[in-house]
From TrEMBL:
This is Ferredoxin. The lineage of its organism: Bacteria, Pseudomonadati, Pseudomonadota, Gammaproteobacteria, Moraxellales. Pfam families: Fer4. Its cofactor is [4Fe-4S] cluster. Residues 1-29, 30-64 form the 4Fe-4S ferredoxin-type domain. The gene is fdx_1. InterPro entries: 4Fe4S_Fe-S-bd (IPR017896), 4Fe4S_Fe_S_CS (IPR017900), PSI_iron-sulfur_center (IPR050157), YfhL-like (IPR047927). GO terms for cellular component: cytoplasm. PROSITE patterns: 4FE4S_FER_1, 4FE4S_FER_2.
Length: 82
């Protein structure tokens, strides 16, 4: 699954530098996550780093982007072709 930042976001900037896929960006009102780039850190870390640093716990599973770990790994490989 991709992750989603809810409108509870306070724009603290903690998540932005944590994303290894550069999926997080500044939206009009708060930070957003590009579901096409989000791998929930699969391929990089054991857990999503953005969720770990969020001080208000406003990052959730995206209800419209359900992906298995295998699918996230395939996405990771396609985004990080060397």
């Amino acid at each position: 699954m991709a992750l989603l930042i809810t409108d509870d976001c306070i724009n603290c900037d903690m998540c932005l530098p944590e994303c290894p896929n550069t999926a997080i960006f500044e939206g009009e009102k708060y930070y957003e996550i590009d579901p096409d780039r989000c791998t929930e850190c699969v391929g990089f870390y054991d857990h999503p780093t953005c969720k770990a640093v969020c001080p208000i716990d406003c990052i959730i599973q995206h209800p419209e982007h359900s992906e298995s770990t295998d699918e996230l790994l395939i996405k990771f490989k396609s985004l990080n072709i060397v």
